[in-house]
């Protein structure tokens, strides 16, 4: 498997630190508001990566943090805490906000078939780990105290900028929106590991520490949580491209300074979902959530399908027109699968293996989900049994998770029910019409005699009195009436 490594800017063969096992860390949400669908694109692609690693035979342990403290609004140690901002907005406590939006996040993930990671850790649950990590960084002279806060000293590193080759003079104050000068910093790139009571006195969540009562910085959380559950060697670290700097850059700096050796080998970043007006955010334009998609009539699986048709390292433009096109394509695909008969033929294992090969090659090539979706259509076009096609599609969907078999089965059942209802309605109408015609005809004395004779003949045949049945038929024939026996009963024709 080849993965693009953001740290080396090239595709590399994926080789985990421990053969057969994968340690995977993904930055979770800051739970101060609903996740918008741009955030969720990142989690979907991470979900596909995890599921494909499992599909390929790896034993995967995936950890995700929940940021419920310490994430400042500018991402650069300035501005107010996002959790405090959410609490003020809704006049609730920070923990009430965290609980509500954590539950909302995982509800959205369930709708999008995003698997819950093996370990989900709120940041507030690992304070002791952060304090120990910071104490060690101070002992190793990688961190210093200034103005009541603890800062990481980036000047002590041979290389700080991992994902981009910045020059210090390019990082003047004001380059990043919302950044103001912090006179406590020794260097422009230094970042806060621990805030004390000297700053943000209105902060709701605080803990005692060797440096005073305070709370952790955002960046230290992921290092502490990752090393607690996955140890000192991490195989894959994922996140949105906007996390590469400063968040992931700072994670690498503090983690490797702490452990004294390379920490994470592969860095996987998902590019932005943009609107026609630019990068999607919670603060501008229509706040696009999964709930809003549903309100507008879109199945969340249509959004997942839409995202999978593009590569994770390409920016994707969201528009309602694009969603409409994705819905048409998805519904046609489900209809084609629903038309397959599960009872038709047996599974041809050799043919199935050949069809799976194209799917594997697509995902082995830096998780090319667009080509993996194309492999679905290759299966539908293949000259194999319906049973084989359905088995292969079920196999693909363990990774893609776009509800292929579930939605198709539901549509198949719906169409069968509609067909049965239509046939029942037609039969009832025919019976009602026949009964009406019979009643009208019975008003004619001659017709009434014929119908009575038909009933008498039917009774004779039931009693196996075939001589009497033949006599009735011959008597009617003599009067110019021909009886016609059908599987549905006996009718007549007057000559």
In short:
The protein has 15 helices and 16 strands. The protein is α/β, with parallel strands linked by helices.
Write the layout of secondary structure elements.
Layout (H helix, E strand, L loop, with lengths): L1 E4 L4 E4 L7 E6 L10 H19 L3 E8 L15 H9 L3 H18 L7 E4 L4 H13 L3 E4 L2 E4 L38 E6 L17 E3 L1 H13 L3 E7 L3 H16 L4 E7 L2 E3 L2 E2 L10 H6 L4 H9 L7 E3 L1 H19 L10 H16 L4 H13 L4 H15 L3 H39 L2 H18 L3 H13 L2 E6 L2 E6 L1
Parallel strand pairs: 3-4, 3-10, 4-5, 10-11, 12-14
Antiparallel strand pairs: 1-2, 6-7, 7-8, 8-9, 12-13, 15-16
Helix pairs in contact: 2-3, 4-5, 5-6, 8-9, 9-13, 10-11, 10-12, 11-12, 14-15
Walk me through this protein's architecture:
The protein is α/β, with parallel strands linked by helices. It folds into 3 domains: 2-270, 3-Layer(aba) Sandwich (Rossmann fold), CATH 3.40.50.620; 292-409, Four Helix Bundle (Hemerythrin (Met), subunit A); 444-495, no CATH class. The protein has helices at 37-55, 82-90, 94-111, 127-139, 218-230, 244-259, 290-295, 300-308, 320-338, 349-364, 369-381, 386-400, 404-442, 445-462, 466-478, and strands spanning 2-5, 10-13, 21-26, 59-66, 119-122, 143-146, 149-152, 191-196, 214-216, 234-240, 264-270, 273-275, 278-279, 316-318, 481-486, 489-494. A 5-stranded parallel sheet has the order 5-4-3-10-11, sandwiched between helices. It is elongated. The termini are far apart.
